[in-house]
Amino acid sequence: MNKLEILRNVEQMKLLEFAQFLKNKEGQKYVFLFYQREYIPQIEPKILNDYMSQHMKNPFVMQTLSRISSLSGRTISIDVDHVKRAYADSSTSIHFLFITKPPPILPGIYFEEHSEDIFLPFTEMANATGGYVGSSSNPASLFQKALEASENYYLLYYSPKKYEYDGKFKEIKIHVKNKNYKVTHRAGYFAD
After folding, report:
1. Across the chain, where does the E strand assignment appear?
2. In contact, 158 and 102? CB cutoff 8 Å
3. Is residue 159 part of a domain?
């Protein structure tokens, strides 16, 4: 299980390096992030309690069961706001496609979803760049919607009146009079 955890780990430094790499590239850039809902199998509590009471004197069994139960929660190890700002500044459209395949049905087992530690940063990255965020059990449909979103846009430019090279993150706010329009835009930029 530890090997699986290492494989699925998303490191903040690598995300920030990728944002910088994208920022340094010329031209229009699109990134499509695919991520499938993760489930961790859990043993039904009644079955687990019965098993524990039968093997209470076996330290190996008790240690293994303790290790299994410690897999139930994950924390977000990424500074989401920092990553979001880096991608907003990268002049890239990030599209996050979350595949929501339902869990299998197995007797004596239930499945807990554990996607929150990756779902939140990827969603914020896409939102910060004005990209598409969608979820479906059909990856082809998701990709089609993301492609359509990346093809339909108007491009507006602006220059701040008093640009200050202070290295701070400057938030961009867009207001439209007609509420029937959907406006997506990057969250801001670093004034460097």
Report:
1. 30-36, 39-43, 93-99, 109-113, 133-136, 169-171, 188-190
2. no
3. no
Q: What is the pLDDT of residue 128?
A: 92
Q: Is 104 left (phi over 0), alpha (psi -120 to 50) or beta?
A: beta
Nearest of 138, 189, 141, 159 to residue 36 by alpha carbon: 138
Query: Which amino acid appears at position 63 of this protein?
Result: Q
Is 175 contained in some domain?
Answer: no
The answer to whether position 172 is within a domain reads no
116 near 73, Cβ under 8 Å?
no
Per the structure, how many domains does the chain have?
1
- Which structural domain range is residue 75 located in? 2-152
Task: Enter the pTM of the model.
Answer: 0.72
CA distance 107 to 8: 27
Per residue in 168-180, pLDDT (tens digit) is 888 888 888 888 8
Q: Is residue 181 part of a domain?
A: no
What is the Cα–Cα distance from 170 to 187, expressed in whole angstroms? Answer: 8
